[in-house]
């Protein structure tokens, strides 16, 4: 398997693990960040879901975003993502790029794309993320914006609030304090 394909596979596997583990082993913090244990080696933190558009066809848990973080228990290394789930009708968008509010390129992660049945004809759900360097979270405590773009020309801007960033970082720090004891 070539390197880009392997990275995409691993990113998708991480997405599935984080999604599945939230349902299996949640530990809710007061800030709304859910901690999960996808494996003995990693602790995962999934922030609250926020709608970026109306629920698709009135279906709950569609068209949302959240912060996700994965901490390696052995090394302490932390990976952060801005995860987006988008359902829509019409022509396929093909989300494929992410940039920070300052225009800097962020690593885009395509997680999944599926056709879904709907009365409008062609409907899709795409799940994707942008890798967020630790400095992007810690250096933007007032909040930040990520601009996603698609092959179709569509653009989606996601604004992450200061409260959301603070809650994510606080949940990770609280876990680290208890994990060291």
Please characterize this protein's 3D structure.
Strand 7 (95-100) and strand 8 form a beta hairpin. Helices cover 25% and strands 41% of the residues. The strands form two sheets. Strands 1, 2, 3, 4, 5, 6, 9 and 10 form an eight-stranded antiparallel beta sheet that branches. It has a four-stranded antiparallel beta sheet with strand order 8-7-11-12. It has one domain (3-179). Residues 1-26 have low confidence and may be disordered. It is globular. By secondary structure, the chain is α+β, with helices and mostly antiparallel strands. The longest helix has 22 residues, at 3-24.
Topology:
Blueprint lengths: L2 H22 L2 E2 L5 E3 L5 E5 L3 E2 L12 E9 L5 E12 L5 E6 L4 E2 L1 E9 L6 E10 L1 H5 L4 E8 L4 E7 H18 L2
Antiparallel strand pairs: 1-2, 2-3, 3-5, 4-5, 5-6, 6-10, 7-8, 7-11, 9-10, 11-12
How does the overall form come out from the CA principal axes? Answer: globular
Query: How far is the first residue's CA from the last residue's CA?
Result: 41 Å
The proportion of strand residues reads 35-45%
Count, helices: 3
Query: Topology as H/E string?
Result: HEEEEEEEEEEHEEH
Number of strands: 12
Q: Mean pLDDT, as a whole number?
A: 83
Count of separate structural domains: 1
Specify the oligomeric state. Answer: single chain
Alpha carbon gyration radius: 16 Å
Low-confidence stretches: 1-26
* Helix/strand/pairing category: alpha+beta
Proportion of residues in helical segments:
10-25%
**Can you summarize the main beta sheet?**
8 strands, antiparallel
Question: Can you tag this structure with a few keywords?
Answer:
8-stranded antiparallel β-sheet, alpha+beta, 12 strands, 181 residues, disordered N terminus
């Amino acid at each position: 398997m070539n390197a880009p394909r392997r990275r995409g596979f691993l990113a998708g596997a991480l997405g599935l693990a984080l999604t599945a583990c939230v349902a299996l082993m949640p530990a809710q913090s007061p800030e709304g960040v859910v901690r999960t244990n996808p494996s003995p080696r990693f602790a995962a933190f999934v922030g609250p879901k926020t709608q970026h558009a109306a629920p698709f066809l009135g279906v709950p848990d569609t068209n949302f975003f959240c912060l996700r973080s994965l901490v390696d228990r052995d090394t302490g290394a932390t990976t952060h993502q801005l995860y987006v789930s988008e359902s829509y009708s019409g022509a396929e968008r093909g989300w494929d790029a992410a940039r920070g509010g300052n225009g800097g390129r962020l690593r885009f992660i395509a997680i999944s794309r599926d056709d879904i049945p709907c009365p409008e004809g062609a409907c899709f759900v795409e799940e994707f993320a942008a890798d967020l360097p630790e400095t992007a979270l810690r250096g933007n405590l007032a909040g930040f914006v990520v601009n996603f773009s698609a092959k179709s020309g569509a653009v989606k801007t996601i604004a992450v609030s200061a409260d959301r960033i603070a809650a994510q970082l606080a949940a990770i720090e609280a876990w680290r304090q208890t994990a060291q004891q």
